[in-house]
Amino acid sequence: MIAAAVIVVLSPFLAAVAGLLGTRRLWNDGRPPGTVDPAVYRRAAWIAVLPTAISTVLAIWMVAYLWTGGALPRGAASYGGGSAFWSQGLPGVVQGTLSVIGTGSIPITAGLRVDGLAALIAVLVTVVALAVQVYSVGYMRDEPRYPSYSAFISLFTSAMLLVVYAGDLLVLYVGWEIMGLCSYLLIGHWWEDRANSRAAVKAFLVTRIGDVGFLFGIFTLGFAAGSFRIDDVIGKVPQMSTGTLVAATMLLLLGVAGKSAQVPLHTWLPDAMAGPTPISALIHAATMVAAGIFVVARLYPAFLGARPTLDLLAVIASLGMLGAALAALAQDDLKRVLAYSTISQLAYMAGALAAGSDEAAVFHLITHGAFKALLFLCAGAVIHAVGSNLMSDMGGLRRSMTITFPAMTIGFAALVGLPPASGFFSKDAVLAAIEHAAAGPGPLTDAAAWLLYGCALLTVAVTGAYATRAWLRTFFGESRVHSVALPEPEPGVAHVWDGREAPASMLWPIGVLAVPALLLGFAGAGTLEWSTAAVSLLVALLGAGVVYAAWRADPAADPARVLGPFQVPCRQAFHVDAVYSRLFVAPVLWLARVVARTDDTVVDGAVRGSGSLAVGASGLLRRLQTGNAQLYLTGVLAGVLIIAVGAVVLG
Amino acid sequence: MHVVYPAVLAALLFSIGVYGVLARRNTILVLMSVELMLNAVNLNLVAFDVWLRDRLHGGQVLTLFVIVIAAAELGVGLAIVLAVFRNRQTVEIDRLHDLAEPDDPGGEGPATGDAPPSDPPAGGPSPDGPMARPQGAVPARDGAP
Amino acid sequence: MTSAVPGLWPPTAQEIVFLLLGAVVAGSALLVVTTRQIVHAALWLVVSFGALAGCYLVLTAEFVAWVQVLIYVGAVVVLLLFGIMLTRAPIGPSADLDSGNKVAAVVVAVATAAVLVTTVVDGFRTAYTPLVPGEGAAEPLGRSIFRNWVLPFEALSVLLLAALIGAIVLSRTDIGGKD
Questions:
Q1: Neighbours of chain B (3+ CB pairs under 8 A)
Q2: I need a surface site. Which of A435, A437, A511, A635 has the fewest CB within 10 A?
Q3: B4-96+121-138: CATH, from 3.10.450.700, 3.40.50.150, 1.10.287.3510, 3.20.20.80
């Protein structure tokens, strides 16, 4: 059985290798540079899609295997019980160890470990990855670098699956870092535009700050437990001191905040939308950013033992969910709306974790992965059709985009939490968990819990508002599409499509993802808390209603004007970028300039100085090279005399 | 006989030879000075042989050997001087400076800077050129039966 | 030996003769290196070598003295004169026989003399030997050479042969290199 897990991880990796090595045109067949050879394109597409499909099938089979191997007939029936639903419904654990790498102190176990949580997340990852790969075939047509693009997606899929299936914290970290690399490479896919490569560098650097903390968190846990194996670490948690746990989880939290784009390391995610839209769907909405939440859920016993960390997580989540939702309300770029929405939704999951309910967090993670990927893919189709990211260039698209419109409506409904979409159930689970933490005994202090609860409810309203706004501005009202005036886009903007609806290879993934986005929530329907659901639904409809009223008043104007004077700060995401730039970037740049100047003047100066000193000295000494043998002989004899006298006098 | 007399005389003779080697321009004069130095050594050898009463007469035998070697050295040395003269039309030692640093604007050393060739030897191209083999050598070789 | 050593002053008759000859040697050597006429230098060399032969005679090394006269005064100086002639050296006084290195040469030479004389005087102030006539005659010297020094003697003959061939190869213009 472990062989299947290995194949799940390895087949996208081999696809990446094959895609990077095997799809180059080795000879020029006469076509101008920058154009795509259809044969190469087709080959790259097959190399990309097939292994991902294999992984998907095997990952689903993995879940089925664990399910049938479990004692309980239906996983959903036990949801909400004392322990998480995945360990109830999918009780088995498949694990295997390739080898144990001795390091001198604590060995590293190169092995995989598949339990219910890992199997579920892996299915999410592979399904979304498969959808994105298929979608990219259409979206990235006429893209000269499609082979490397699809290979990087395969590599990312493999890395994410490694994170999910890893049986050892350091193996997990390997996948974690490869994900970061792929994210960097794919954000900067259209690197010809300076802004894109800057966004890629920003994403890389910001997540790097978090990853340093993450690595040291792993070390702290590993040394405290005497092993890096996840089972051992979790097993040793009861014996660890609170101080160790707090230190380790705080460090881990830094990495989680970096990867999952939580306050204060969230600023890279909106800029990461510079990458191709399928990448935003896969990496920056559904999977990679969820990895932080996944890791917390994975090591949840350690977090439960560190109350201050959970309080901090609650505060971070409160700030993140409300701030990001408000920022999303004011954005004009459709993808940035979705990006801030992602931050906000991830903060929901973090809040659920802080409130002590990892199953709610993971439930929301899975449904969010489905509907956010769906939203991004729909946004990609819209952008593809319009040729612009800006909502002020859209409008009235519901008549022309007959498939994208209902799919995106489902996505928005899930995002807002309208029944019967999946988000309704998962968000209800999260809110219920937070409410319990605030009302009753929970891991949080009362202040943090109430702050979290208040922010969560407010965010529900704001979510309803921004989702409604984006939906209305994109699909309703007068068309603002400049059908002719749009110039041929630069690299970095999706290609202008002459037809109104996207091609079939893009519509199929949208349609397929719409199903789980709509229906996945019923898996958790049995534990719905009707009072909480009613409150949140009411609040969401309130937010949506305000925006709808504003839109009805003037369909041409931006409904974000309801924010009033807060519109500009919200659009700028509360100037966090500017503050960071002032606080961190400017001093670092100043320091870099000082270092560069020091290097130029002092270090290079010493090097150059020694060089010019040697040249100057040789300029003096070369005058002695007159070619006059007598002069040389004079020197020799004088030297002999001096040596003789010296030997006599000193000896 | 005090040994110090011949020893001091030899020292003086040697120093005079040193001066001649270092100060003379003409290569033949330099060779003469070398002979002076060799003779200083010979004098020392003889004097110490006499003083030590060497049963094998090592000092005096060695003096003879040195005389023979000096004669051979002079023969070869003069042959070299003649070869140089054939190629360069000069035997002045401070103008044979092919080992000097080339293309230096101030490159003439102190020894040669103030001693320009006042009268170049008769006949023949300027000897200041680099290793260019003067024309005199090749026809002479061809013409010699 | 030190018990029978007479003082440096007054010098014995032999020593007086030696000193006079030595003065001639040094003086003519000085003229060799300072004269402005190149032929005169060769001739002063004859005087210097001849006086040196006299010194050898005083030191009882008669065979060496005669060899000195024969080879140095006879052969070497003639060879030098040939060299002077073949290199078309100017006959008569010429102003540029000394190079610009003269000052340095004087300094080095004086320093050499100072070091050597100091050392020699310091080391051999009391060394004395009575002179025994006949010690350096041809007969004991020849016996010594052909009894004890045969091998170096033969080696020397090979060296002479090599020098002979070398001198011929160097001087002849019809033997070229492989160019």
A1: A, C
A2: A635
A3: 1.10.287.3510
